[in-house]
Structure formats: structure tokens, C-alpha cells
Amino acid sequence: MRNAESLNSMQESFTQPRVTAVARESLTQHLSTYLDVRKFKDVAPNGLQVEGTPMIHKLVVGVTANEALIDAAANAQADALLVHHGLFWKGDDPRIVGFHRRRVAQLIARNINLYAYHLPLDAHPDVGNNVQLAKKLGLNVRGACGDQDLVLYGELGNAIPVRPAVLAAFCARHFGGRVSLFTSSTGLVQKIAWCTGAGGSLLRDAIDLGAEAFITGEISEHHIHIARESNVTLITIGHHASERGGVMALASYLEKKFSLSTQFIDVDSPL
């Protein structure tokens, strides 16, 4: 009987992933190196924003460190929360009051580490938001341009030109019903540029590159006129929707690297 129990235990050890813990300092250092944080000039501090427990067994990831996500991470008994949009931004009111206090207080009360990576997670060549968008849409990446190489460009995997409306419908199939086709070029689309999040400010880089379409998360009003007057197809897929891919890919990487237990929690946003 004991031998049978030992055999079952051995079989389970081979079939079930072993979950371990990683020291906070080790994870912080690894992420800083892996995401090449020092390379970027950013409007937010990248890395550990709120210090929690020194050992991390479970990591929750999400897009934005809002109160709902922090509460969900606490309910999931997370030791760390990793997001794309953290709590601290250049130009923000630095006072810890109101909703900001509630967010910070919950993290401290539950001893949860908060990590945030903004531009480094947009631009990373393996787990970045831009690369994950390309994978989801089946885009071949040919290169990068724009400020800090935040715009990628290429074409659809089959390299066949398509009508702007077809490209928009293809985006909607993969990113949901909030996709909008704001302007359409007069011809077929083959060369495509893209930048997740609020990438409208990089539209001119796509135009200078000769792109026939630009895909991004969200834009400002004047970007529509620039695209129209440049005969460029302009498609938005939602800021939040465009940036789910990076944190999910990074969680998968960390799960394999450190045998961490990870969980993606989506607190949706209409933008």
C-alpha cells in the first residue's frame, strides 16, 4: 500500500507544475534587466512602486492598478500585483488622498507588492504589447520607428493587400466590438504600422514611414484630420484592449522562469 501511495505521489510530481516562491529583490532585479528599464525615458516610475512581502508565491497581473483590481488581487491572495499602468505619473497630484489613498492603503494592509512597467512593456521584443498585438492579428513585423521605437510596422501574414473595412473587421474579430474605423485610405492596405495604448501621437511617424494604415488603442480628435489628409486608414481597438497582451505574456514568462503561480484578472474599461 505504501509503495502504491509513493508511486502515485511520484506520478503527481511529474504531471503537476511545481510552484515555488521568489524573493522580491530577485524578481525586481530580473524584471528591470529583462525589460531593459534603464533604456526608456518615461512619464512613470518603472519597477516596484509599493513594497510588500519579501517572498512572492502568487503573482496577479492586470492592465491598470485601479481599486477593483487591487481588491481582486487581495481576494486571490496574491503576494504581488504587476500592471502596465501603475499608481504614479509625472504631473499628477502627489498627495495620498481619496481614491489614491484607498489603493495604496489596500496594498499595504494586505502586504502586496505592486510592480508597474509602462513603456518597457510596450516595446519589449518578446512580451511587449506591440509584439503581442502583432501575434494576435498575424502581422509580420518588419521593423520599428518613432520615439523610443514605440511604433512597429509590417504587413498581414499573407502579405495580400486588403480593403480598409476588411482590416477593421479583422481587428474587431480579435479585439471585440469597440474597434472603430475612423478614416479609410482610397486604396488597398498592405503596409501597416501600429502602437498600442494612446498611440495617436505617433501617427505622423507611421505616415512618414509610408504606412497605409495605422492601428492604435485610442486617439485624439485632431488625429482623424491628419489621417484623412494623409490618405491613411486609421483604426482604434481600445486602449485597454490593446494592452492586455503584454501583462499576460509577461506572466507566462515569469511562471516558467520562476515556477510562480500567476493569474490574469481583467477589470474592463470602455476606452
Question: Could you characterize what this model shows?
Answer:
The protein has 271 residues and is of the alpha/beta class. The chain folds into two domains: 138 residues, Udp-n-acetylmuramoylalanyl-d-glutamate--2,6- Diaminopimelate Ligase, Chain: A, domain 1 (3-Layer(aba) Sandwich), CATH 3.40.1390.30; 114 residues, NIF3 (NGG1p interacting factor 3)-like (Udp-n-acetylmuramoylalanyl-d-glutamate--2,6- Diaminopimelate Ligase, Chain: A, domain 1). The protein is built from eleven helices and 13 strands. The strands form three sheets. The chain has a six-stranded mixed β-sheet, with helices on both faces. Strands 2-6-5-4-13 form a five-stranded mixed β-sheet, with helices on both faces. Helix 3 links the parallel strand 4 and strand 5. Helix 3 packs parallel to helix 4 and helix 6 packs across helix 11. The protein is elongated and about 55 Å long. The termini are far apart.
